[in-house]
User: What shape does this take?
Amino acid sequence: MTTHGRDPEPDRTALPDPSDVPPASAWQRVVCVVLGMRAGHVDALRGRLAACLAVRSCDGSLREARRWARTHRVPWDPLEGGLCALGARCDCEALEALER
Assistant: This one.
């Protein structure tokens, strides 16, 4: 299916419920603030990275995180900056930072 230069519609089934529960740990709260996202979005990103890295190894980039952001219409530049602030330079490091 071609999108004719448009972004495909986001997979809204993967988005968390708006009645999102607050993060459980202090680190999770820090991650939410640094990334500028709710806990449910952080969990969705963590799940996507874990699933992708279970299938193929990390290529040294934030490719899967970028795909997730585009799919869910999350602005990439702030997310990339937040991941870098957490010490993540690639998808496997991002997953590690999100799972601490």
